Amino acid sequence: MIIKNAIKAYELIKNDFPIFSKSDVYELIEHISKKKYDLLVLNPNEELQVNFFRKYLKIKVKLKKGVPIAYITKNKMFCGLNFKINNKVLIPRNESELIVQYACNFLKNKKNIKVLDLCCGSGCIGISTVYLNRKSINKITFADISKAALKITKQNNKLLNLKNNVKFIKGDFLDPFINKEKFDLILCNPPYIKYGDLNVSDSVFKYEPHISLFAKEEGLYFYKKMFANIEKLVDISKPFNIIFEIGWDQKEKLEKLISLNPNIKYEFKEDFSKLWRNLIISNK
Fold first, then answer.
1. Which of 42, 140, 238, 283 could form a cystine bridge with 115, CB 3.0-4.6 A?
2. What CATH number matches the domain at 78-82+88-283, 3.10.20.30, 3.30.465.10, 3.40.50.300, 3.40.50.150?
3. Which keywords does the record carry (predicted)?
4. Relative orientation angle of helices 22-33 and 6-16, to the nearest 10 degrees
5. Domains in the chain: boundaries
6. Residue 135: pLDDT above 90?
7. How many C-beta atoms surround the C-beta of residue 202 within 10 A?
8. Closest of 100, 129, 133, 102 to residue 268, by C-alpha
9. pLDDT per residue as tens digits for the range 146-201
């Protein structure tokens, strides 16, 4: 079979995988054809190479097994930026862009801010935040327990040419920072799924790194550790934000824990689907 243009390619893939979004399909077409996403969307009659179908059939086998598109293309758009990824890091999600949005709100009209992207993975959250707020941020530190994840973060940092003061730290969550360095803004999308959670899709469970997904103590371990060490990581007498992503069903338990600290303010935020998705901790 010869697939002459992007329209035919779109119809083919959408027919095979009806659940794929328009952007999913075009990302696949871009990957196979080596033609830019924007060009394909704006010019759906753009001609494709004669071996497109043969290449697609090889990828289709992986897709049928549940391999995520992003692990096939090795790329994922996040906050309008293109990030390199692999199966050593979580695939950036749309809802995680909310962390960047709240970070931008905090950074407005501020200068010389020190940022920590904790559990950084691909670095998409921290890099996007710096990219959108270059004049506000003096230094950003990326931290992860995974050496492989930090390698991807470094690649993305280089590709997006961040010229701010950048540091990369391999370590176990807060251990490299407690009583050593304080930050104005901490961004954190930690592992927060409890072990045995039946809501995790087969594709996520099978292909995404478990070290980035699951946490002990019913998924609350990393939040508890942060709550116990807030004043060792930020100066609570000055403006600061700690912005977390959380599980949609964790608000009540987290609120009981964070409310025990009388020295800070906190606010829970919903995502696009009206599910609890973020916790923002700040100074009183």
1. 140
2. 3.40.50.150
3. Methyltransferase, S-adenosyl-L-methionine, Transferase
4. 120
5. 6-65, 78-82+88-283
6. yes
7. 8
8. 102
9. 999 999 999 999 998 877 689 999 999 999 999 899 999 999 999 999 999 989 99
Contact 32, 62 (CB under 8 A): no
> Phi first, then psi: what are they for 179, rounded to 5°?
60, 20
Which H or E run includes 204? helix 202-207
What sign has the CA pseudo-torsion 36, 104, 110, 144?
negative
Residue among 100, 167, 150 at smallest CA distance from 129? 100
Q: How far apart are the first and last CA of the chain?
A: 65
Tokens of 58: 């090889």
DSSP 8-class letter at 205? H
Cα–Cα distance measured from residue 177 to residue 183, given in angstroms and rounded to the nearest whole number: 10
Q: Name which of 221, 208, 124, 119 is nearest 172 in CA terms.
A: 119
Beta-bridged to residue 141, according to DSSP, are 116, 167
